[in-house]
């Protein structure tokens, strides 16, 4: 084994005993960062390795007069661990659920892919289980979204993770992704039902304290239903200026002879003055500029055919309002609380109070 890669293996082992801060080895090749997890890389960036994850503990109280829902729960919303890294032009990521709510057992894969980087940032090829390129809120990590739960519109229209192959790229103010994916699950015969999904974004204004984001997505999918084929379309508009941020998405889905649509609008204010970070076509979570932490308030309104399960309602036409407050103790720890109130078109209503303690590294 060469000196470089022997040293890399030894550094990974040594990192588990490190207490905090950034450590540079006595050799010439390695940099170890334990500021918020375990990150090891060769100084010329020819190889890297990182361990990370998230843990979200939620209190949830939901009531609905649609089907008699009246529940109170304290459970793990998400618990995930991942390993990722690269060697030369090849990269990988393996992320697994340790546990989730609703009685689900851990062990299933979230991300499981190999990526080729040799063409540069303008053209990257990813093969394996990954997020399909569709939807701003869906592509924003669950540890970074401002509301504790994604909108009923994102839950209804976005495809999530699937096995397949994707070509993607990014520049200073633009991104794109287009892929060919399995349309239904991860069984033994999935490519009998396939999907083609694509997204593009541009930020015509992008400075240190201001950004304007525009995006669009499209997905055409085989379906094991009477519809036979589903075509989804998405438009994104978002921006941030100083401590204020906003985003809105419109979705439309043609499912055979049925055409459904919906939208949401979300506004946020970081009371302590920080700006919400933006990178490569998505927003990141707030990082406090003071040891006292950062405070954020958000409001979201949505209307249309959506999946209103968070408030105990059905996938149907309706409306929903969300109010939330977040406290970011540091870049790893977040405490949040939200109230969601929804109503179906037939008059049935439901609401949810949710509180979360999150640690992400």
Automatic annotation (TrEMBL):
Keywords noted in UniProt? Signal
Please give the superkingdom of this protein's source: Bacteria
Positions in coiled-coil regions: none
Signal peptide limits: 1-20
InterPro entries linked:
Porin_dom_sf, Porin_O/P
Pfam families on file:
Porin_O_P (PF07396)
Keyword Hydrolase in record: no
Q: Which SUPFAM superfamilies match?
A: Porins
Q: What is this protein called?
A: Porin
Per the record, the gene is oprO
